[in-house]
Structure formats: structure tokens, C-alpha cells
Write a structure and sequence with these properties.
This protein has 8 helices and 9 strands. By secondary structure, the protein is mainly alpha-helical. Helix 1 packs antiparallel against helix 8 and helix 3 runs antiparallel to helix 6.
Length: 295
Amino acid sequence: LEKEGAGNVITKAISDVDDCVEGMRKFTTEIFDTGVALLGYMGMLFYYDWRLALCSLIFPPFSYIIAEKMKRIVQRTGAAYKEQTGKLNAATLDRITNAITYRVFGCEKERGEDYEVHLKEYERAAVRANIWNAALPPVYKVIAMAGTVMILYFGSKNILGSGWTSWDVAAFTTFLACYTKLSDKSSKAAKLFNSVQKANVSWKRIRPLLTEPPEETEEKTASGFVLAGASHEATKTAEVLVVGEGIRTLTGELIAPSVAAGDKVLVENGAGVNVKDGDDSVSIIREADILAVLA
């Protein structure tokens, strides 16, 4: 949160994850649905007239080429949209959390104007990103449907008996219907490229966060307490070398120490006074600074 900000983390946790899931869903379903359908339609076209099928099938691949060329624009506008979404989420969270503070200190109007700036930038980024996602699929379909010109011209010759194959009207309409369905499926496959590119932007944003947290090791003391792994960062293990006679109460009663020489204990980092004993460094600590007896 300190490194990226709450708004950016919220965007990655919700919007980016959702886009990745949606991209994976579309990819897996379209591969089987569209792929099998395309093969079936192509088989029908080649069955009726393989020469005309080759001529008409020249156009659908151009939609894939254009989709690949538009990859950078889709990814760039998508990344800018995600960035503005994170900023808007951060501004929204700040406005809600500190609403009373801003009102008390008279900053409510300034913060409201700043929020409107974030909102306008978000709207512009959203328009740029969505316009490419919405405008490209019809272009893909028009390009794929260009093959119908070839079918109308050469198919009419087949009906008249002067083409590559002798057709009747039923064969012509069947061929044209199959190609129309194939063009529709082909344009959806090209649209799938944009969805995958959009998901790729989100994946690059959330991938650095997909790291496994370090495993916490539990340690059980001699007294039966369980210490979490996080407690080791602020503590250290030490061995008791020498103990004093104890402490006296207000009545003069002597209370013997609860540890003995040779015990392994857990103490806070920085507790006590460090002194030199020859080449060795030892710490003089109070019994109250001992967190637990390990063994």
C-alpha cells in the first residue's frame, strides 16, 4: 500500500483480475467454439468449390493481421485507462476517509475540485480505451465479408454453367450462407485478439503482486507458548550465562530468578546493555526483558 497506493491496489485487485479472468474465459471458449466452427464451414466451402473457396478465404486473414497491428494501441490505451482508474480510486478513498477533516479545515471545496480533475482524466482515458475496443470489431467483419464479392461474381458463373463448377441456386445460397457464418466467426476471432491484449495489460500489472508470502515458522517455548514467525524480526535468541541473586520486594523478601545459567531465552532486540568480555560481546538484561524461555 505504501509503495503503490490504495487506489492502485484496489484497481489491480478488482478490475485487473476481472479483465484477466474474462480474457482467459474468452480465449478458452473461442478456441473451441470458433475454431471448430471455422473448420466446419471451410470444409463445406471446399466441398462445393475449392477454387472459389480459396479465392474468398483470402480476405479473413487480413482481419487477423490488422488486429495484430493494432495491438500496441490497444495495450497503450488500456494501460492508461488502468492507471487513471487507480488514481480515481485513490482520490475517492481519500475523499471518503478524510471528509470530516477537510470540512473542519475548510478544504472541502479544493478537494472537490481536485476530485473533478481526476474524474475528467478518467473519463478521457476510458473513452480512448473503449473506442478502440468498440470500433475495431465492425472493421474486422467488413474485411472478412469482402469475400462475398468473389462469391457473387464467380458463383453466378457457376449457376450459368460457365464457372469452375456447375451449381444450382440451392448450392449457391448454401455456399454464400456458409461463408457469411465463417466471416462472422472470423471477425469474432479477431476481436478475441483485442480481448487477450487487454488481459495482457492487466496481467503485467498484477503479476508482480503474485508472490507467495514467506512461510511463518512456529516455535514452541518450554512454557508451552507458540511464537509466530513474524515475532522473530523484533526478537533474538540468547543463552543465559550468569544470573543474579534475584530481586527483593518492598518487605525485603528475596525472589529467586526464574531462569538459570544455560537456559535458552527469547529477548527483544536492543534490550539490555551490551558490554565487552574480552573478544566476546554479552548483554546484561533484566528478567523483565525476557519474553520466553525456549529450553
